[in-house]
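Encode chain A's predicted structure.
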Amino acid sequence: MIATLRGPRLDLRPLTDGDQALYLRLYGDPVAMQHIGAAQDADAAARGFRAALRYNAATPPERLFWVIHDRAAMQALGMAGLTLDEPGGGEVGVLLPAGHQGRGVATEAIAALADHAFAVLQLQRLHTRHQPGHALAAGLMAGLGFERTAPAGDSALWFWQLTPERWADAPRRHSMANPLT
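Encoded structure for chain A:
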């Protein structure tokens, strides 16, 4: 079962059937998707949503999807994901609408994912990637202790990696409480 993660002001709860409208809105939003890929039409996003639910239910997990929920506002803000894409490693990502970008939401969400990935899933590395020149993403990764690495192949994307050791020493570490479930 996928765990619910708790941060100082946010919860990351597993994606459920009731989150389809949020998923379709985020993946269909050209501004939210501008640094990730093309916005999806409703049919493509609906297929992606059904796949995400299947991933969350799979054992062993391969990909995990959470809804980022602001406890004080009692509002879903966006989504976070972890793809277990290599032995001992995984890729983290956050998808937020423009109104919630640059406000610490992604920082807290990725910190919760890093705590969970290293302490519970026992991963040995996390990585992420983004478009060159995406200053918010670069600042986020550097601030959390990720190191920029060489791109794979001829990719123009910027790649970042985090190890448990770097995470333990990260200067602006946002420690999360233990998972709720």
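The longest strand covers residues 75-86.
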